[in-house]
Amino acid sequence: MTARETRFHHYVEVISRANQIAASTELDELLDKMLELLIAVTEAEAGTLYLYEAASHDLVFKVVKGSESSRRLVGSRIGAERGIAGFALARGTPVFVSDPANNPYWDRSLGELSGLILDTIYCLPLMLRGQPVGIVQLFNLAPEVCDDSDELALIELLCSRLVTEVEKARLLAEAQRRERRQQALVEIISRLTTTLDRDELLDRIMSFACELLDVEATSIWLRDDKAGELVLQLATGYRRELMTAQRMPQGHGIIGHVVETGDTVTVNDVSQDTRFYRQIDAKSGFVTRSILCVPLRAPRIELGGQRGAVEGRIIGGAQALNPHDGRHFSPEDVALFESLASQAATVIRLAHLYTEVDNLSTRIIDAITGAIDLKDPYTRGHSQRVSEFSVAIAQELGLDNDTVYRVRIASKLHDVGKIRVPDRILKKRKGLSEAEFRQMRRHPIYGLEFLQENGLLELDLLGDSWQALSQHHERLDGRGYPNGLRGDEISLIGRIVAVADIFDAISSHRPYRPARPADEALAILRRMAGIEIDERCVEAMVRAREKGLILTQDERA
Amino acid sequence: MTARETRFHHYVEVISRANQIAASTELDELLDKMLELLIAVTEAEAGTLYLYEAASHDLVFKVVKGSESSRRLVGSRIGAERGIAGFALARGTPVFVSDPANNPYWDRSLGELSGLILDTIYCLPLMLRGQPVGIVQLFNLAPEVCDDSDELALIELLCSRLVTEVEKARLLAEAQRRERRQQALVEIISRLTTTLDRDELLDRIMSFACELLDVEATSIWLRDDKAGELVLQLATGYRRELMTAQRMPQGHGIIGHVVETGDTVTVNDVSQDTRFYRQIDAKSGFVTRSILCVPLRAPRIELGGQRGAVEGRIIGGAQALNPHDGRHFSPEDVALFESLASQAATVIRLAHLYTEVDNLSTRIIDAITGAIDLKDPYTRGHSQRVSEFSVAIAQELGLDNDTVYRVRIASKLHDVGKIRVPDRILKKRKGLSEAEFRQMRRHPIYGLEFLQENGLLELDLLGDSWQALSQHHERLDGRGYPNGLRGDEISLIGRIVAVADIFDAISSHRPYRPARPADEALAILRRMAGIEIDERCVEAMVRAREKGLILTQDERA
Q1: Chain B residue closest to A368 (CA)?
Q2: Looking at residue B1, what DSSP letter applies?
Q3: A163: CATH
Q4: How many Å lie between the alpha carbon of B3 and the closest alpha carbon of chain A?
Q5: Who among A161, A342, A355 is closest to B19 (CB)?
Q6: Residue B492 and residue B483: Cα distance in Å, rounded?
């Protein structure tokens, strides 16, 4: 074989090894094997490979071979303009340097990191369509390679063979990373939506944001329009005790700007930004370097029914501070944080809408309850107490959350039928005529009618709990009213409220007799248990009393 | 130059052209240029390129050159075992065929599609790590190429040079596609969460699912546990009129299985699945080929406050039918549909929770309103009518949704203070003593106290709307009660409710005088306008009356 033919076979062998390496779709593996091959071909003592990051104009250190001391630097970054590598990258063509320490581009601090005495450096920029992808540096090549321009050309060919693979593997790794972050976002969003409890919700938002963006700290600020301020709701990454209830005037600081304009703001060096509101750092001792600040933009929400839609508005803003590893915030970080913030704002709004309506219904029910109790001056506070007792019994019986909720509401309304009993009968108490007495004893029926006429019986929310109204005067022995139900015909809620009602009647002051102390009242209940009222409910009440959950009218005063 | 050297230069030139082509990161462009280069090198009349899809064991037709008639087949798929291509792919090595029509693997139906008279076919499977990636077929190669085994070897080298690029570009395209779908999912989820209106919500879920999965039809079924059935809520892609209110027994069909077990089921050929419930297709005329069915699993939702958490449960299931282009459902389709369904179930649950509590508060308020009106037999229905009139006036004045909502609630409660005025005074009407008269005129104050004592004044939801209670008997000239406010001291809501209240009083039957017709009542209001009551509100009411929105007690009967 001629020398030419030998070389041809050498070429084919090197290229076919490159083809094998190229089969790797995993970026780190590909880079590792590529550097290995280049070192083998050049018989170099050591080599490094950096990838270029356009956003920061940095070179990120990916692989090193032959220099133990440099291994710990993998992952670090240097400015893409530094040293001989920077010179080669700017030119876009390979640079061969012998005696590098005397080269004008030599950067001693970089050179010394390798721990080698450097004779030769071969810097091969990885270029694609004229743009830098990375750079390979080979140190102390075999002398025969240095003198062989054909061999150096082969090495260049090898790099240009592999640069397209590197680029694709890099794009793939980035796309996969973005995909994972999108998946994490979907996961986070679904976990957000499972709470309408505001504090829990804000807590989740902040910890998810910290995790998703990989930053040192996050905080969330909501508008208090009455005070004209932004109020810090929650911060992670700070020393919490320093950050509670911070307030700043609306329109101030970067966050103030974001809340006012609805624009996202990224500042990678806050020391250069005059909008930055330094008082918070001063108070907290936290040092803010860079900030990504997004508006919390609650959308228009369609509620349907009579209420229609509530309009969208900016309810506050969220901040992420100082990405780990000195990264800059990327456009991808911005997009993710915006998505998260927008969904967070929606759920904060939903939680607010739910809580408002829930408060409205609770307070309206309390109001109606109070009004009924007031019709008879001797029953003030009766319905509220009966409700508390009923809830305590229900919880003691181990009933589930939803049932306890129903017991709470229905027991408050147990006497609502009295709204249809004339005042004069309610206030009379003694010496009622037969007809008046009958009317008085119809209040459980009136109560049921009251719910029915107003469409309350058909609500899933209340289920069968209306039996609290119709059955709280029934007795196990069938001698109760209005229907004389017996034993199992009386629902559990009916039994619970009956026990609570009797206890409160005995332990409260009435015009015709004094209040009995709790122990005496419970003793009376125990004697009635099994005959008139349910034994399990009585025992549950006794246990609740032992836990301090049952307080009589007198004990509250 | 020797022939060997010429060949060497030819090799280098071809490989460097391949390197240029490889710079493309876009799959379709890469494949197109790759086939172009292979045709140029072999001087073939035509060529095709298919990619292999592992999930379906299909070859997907990607590029054709030199055959116009085949161009329309791009995108179609054939079984990966068919024809000479199938043979070559199974062997994993190139196959050269002359006189293909007499080859045992020849598949006439495939061959004729090209519209060419075929002399030679060169089938080059694209293999990576022993696995098929695709196949290139070159038709009617130049005779000198066919006889040159070195040239055929170069073509193989070219394919193996580019297959790693193809694989990476394909993985990249897939990752980008998955990323786009994830982004679409995030977008869809955020659009879902902006409605608590059940019908609107279901509608959005189904149309988003159809779009995301690219299928012919979707449907959503919810449990009706009382009836033991699954009820079709909504279907897209079917003829809607055939699909309304379909029901099927729980536990039947694939969807029944999914709802019962919580497992996702994918069936790519329902004719083979005995669980498939054929009655729905029979009724709708739709032909289901393949089905992807996922549970709607509502999570445990944290409500905070007294109610605590509501437990998670499977509330129904969602179906996607027949992917377009005869695709099979991919694992990615399954994951996306599961994510969407899980979020959909959450929002359906939130909508249900909100609506229940909203209904509770509305109905309780209606109940309290009705009870107050009933204290005086002549005011039956008064508060409801005043509320309707107030809402009509508010809408006519162009007030926003939230304000109208407040007007609706507060105006219903405008007389709630009467709950504290003794029945005998309310029923007396005539011949009230001075003291009784004063008490009667205190009902606006009582109403305000009623709200305040029960914590209703501090709800953001109601804002300042309590002025409807305290100011509805004030007059612009300062001669109203209880505070004798004048002009601007009276809030807009106070003015609105005053007009509505007076209109209803005039147009309703009272013991001491007959009802006046609407026109007469409005004429009276107009005379009072500017002196006692607000002119804009009166004119708004006149306009609302013209639109048919104002009906008197008599007109409703």
Answers
A1: B368
A2: -
A3: 3.30.450.40
A4: 12
A5: A161
A6: 16
